[in-house]
Fold this protein.
Amino acid sequence: MISIYTIKPAFQNLLRPIAYGLHSRGVTANQVTLAALLLSLAVGSVIWLWPTPLTFLLLPPVLLLRMALNALDGMLAREFQGPTPLGALLNELGDVVADMGLYLPLLLLPGLSAAAIVAFVLLALLSEFCGVLGVQIGASRRYDGPMGKSDRALLLGGIALLLGFGVSSGFWLHALLWIANGLLVLTCYNRLYGALQESKACP
């Protein structure tokens, strides 16, 4: 299933010089993971406290920076420092907490269905849980799309950009969010199905 996750290797290649620089300065993967989490919570708090078009314009660059930090922590762990159990826990927990911190402030948009936003956040969390469940049955951690973490960031970043430049929320946004929720349900299915198929193929 098509997902922005498929371009991750190319994105990592662009960031590799930065990863080398961070490693040479003693920055650890866990520090980068925590930085991404704290950044997400800080910006989410700003938007929650001051839900204005200007603050919604913070979302696109922050989501892009968070994607870069998420790629960098993985590269530091795999290529330089070695993965650790604490790092794995921080990575999974940090992603879902950061999602909640960045996306729940959309509840403050006037005229927008709270149910659509809450469903989006809950289904995003469920999709990540479904990805982790693959490990429980002997498969890999699943990242199947079509609405993975990077896809959600692109969608919400685009929405925030439109809202920040004065486009009013309305039916288009309701419809878009519910379509995204449907794609999240499909993502959950694809991850569970992929994990089952992978576990059957394992000796």
Remarks:
- The helical segments are 8-24, 29-49, 53-56, 59-81, 85-103, 114-136, 149-164, 171-201.
- The chain has one domain: 4-201.
- The domain at 4-201 is CATH 1.20.120.1760 (Four Helix Bundle (Hemerythrin (Met), subunit A)).
- The mean pLDDT is 88.
